[in-house]
Design goal:
mainly beta, Neuraminidase, five-stranded mixed beta sheet, binds 2-acetamido-2-deoxy-beta-D-glucopyranose, transmembrane helix, 6-blade_b-propeller_TolB-like, disulfide bond, EC 3.1.1.2, arylesterase activity
């Protein structure tokens, strides 16, 4: 075969595989049917997103980030970002906005991933922020009596290029995911459509960040096992959760991959049994349109629960919740505590569900 012919065939083959990849990503023939684990209700107080939720077992409360704008810059002006508190014990189904004291500019607060560090009952929150023209990690402490936050400091590093979520493993030490490479809206869409592996995972050691994984396909939610033995990274376009073994020196080694055939966003790890609760986007084309126009286009919601078996070698996946988008749109996280589940969404409301029979969800 001549060189020209070979090149033609290679280009044709690449074109076909890209086309098929995009078709599969769109999930055009997929449909979600509604079910609940018990009575559910919309939590009062949150309308414009509850993208990530950090549950703090020591207090029985959850911290919720609200106000992610994605690439829809116009939302910056209308949506007021903030951190909300939900108290499971009260059962009043209300989330309250936490006032922030200290020298912190809240005008352009667009909180994204959140992770907490608890030491001697002192709760420190690490929150990804996207102020205009940059990406930072904001650090706050929580005042339990006043129900407020105090701003501590901003952490910045040149390797925080497209940060999405973080997992704290010690004071000022965390893993952070860079979801993409291109932050320009159109290049970003091209990068995602072609499923280029241009994301990365970095580790910040209190002074500076180092890359621990490059060429990663859309690393999004990141969580650590409560015993700091495993690290989990959700890849929405890969439709998998990657599992890494975490060493004492915080180095990671690929262990396995949990295939979901649904796009995982953020995760919560139950400290009691290691169960992984995941907020998912089950239908690709719906979530793509929803991200572009959150106020007018709905996207299905799905919560999956993964129970790891002995040595993280096998697992059982169940689906505690599914919704076609009419009740809540674009589920991005679920947390579980004492027969209650909270489901957060990228741009929409927050849902609370009672879990009537936890043994079978
Ligand atoms: C949500 O955003 C809209 C503007 O888009 C605003 O009018 C409304 O007050 C916001 N709701 C809350 C609870 O912040
Ligand atoms: C964490 O480690 C302890 C001690 O090895 C063990 O008893 C516990 O079950 C582990 N927790 C989880 C969630 O696996």
């Amino acid at each position: 075969m001549g060189l020209k012919k070979v090149i033609t065939w290679v280009i044709l083959a690449l074109g076909c595989s890209t086309f098929i990849k995009i078709l599969l990503m769109l999930d055009l023939n997929k449909r979600v049917y509604n079910h609940v684990p018990g009575p559910c209700r919309i939590v009062e107080g949150i309308e414009n997103g509850s993208e990530d939720i950090e549950f703090v077992p020591e207090l029985g409360v959850a911290f919720i980030t609200s106000g992610v704008i994605s690439m829809v810059e116009e939302r910056r002006a209308s949506v007021k970002g903030g951190i909300f508190l939900y108290d499971f014990a009260r059962r009043d189904f209300k989330a309250i906005r936490l006032p922030i004291d200290g020298d912190f500019d809240q005008t352009f607060f667009t909180p994204h991933g959140i992770s907490a560090f608890v030491s001697k009952k002192r709760i420190t929150l690490y929150v990804i922020n996207h102020p205009p023209g940059g990406h930072t990690v904001e650090v706050f402490t929580f005042n339990k009596e006043k129900r407020s936050l105090t701003f501590v400091k901003t952490i910045f590093d040149p390797l925080f290029t497209c940060p999405n979520d973080l997992a704290v493993v010690g004071a000022d030490r965390f893993f952070i995911t860079n979801y993409c490479y291109f932050v320009n809206k159109w290049l970003n869409q091209l990068e995602l459509a072609l499923q280029l592996n241009l994301g990365s995972v970095v580790y910040y050691d209190g002074k500076k960040a180092t890359t621990v994984e490059s060429w990663s396909l859309t690393p999004n939610g990141i969580s650590v096992h409560p015993n700091l033995t495993y690290l989990y990274i959700a890849s929405p376009l890969g439709e998998v959760i990657k599992v890494y073994k975490l060493a004492k020196d915080m180095s990671i080694e690929k262990h396995t991959e949990v295939s979901l055939l649904s796009s995982p966003d953020n995760m919560f790890i139950d400290r009691k049994n290691g169960d992984i609760w995941v907020g998912c986007h089950p239908v690709g084309y719906e979530v793509i349109r929803h991200v572009d126009d959150p106020d007018n286009i709905r996207s299905s919601s799905q919560v999956l629960k993964i129970r790891m078996q002995e040595g993280h070698k096998s697992w059982v996946i169940t689906e505690p919740y599914a919704n076609d988008g009419a009740t809540i749109s674009g589920s991005s996280i679920a947390v579980y505590h004492e027969q209650q589940m909270l489901i957060g969404t990228m741009f929409h409301k927050l849902l609370q569900c009672d879990v009537i029979n936890p043994d079978i969800v």
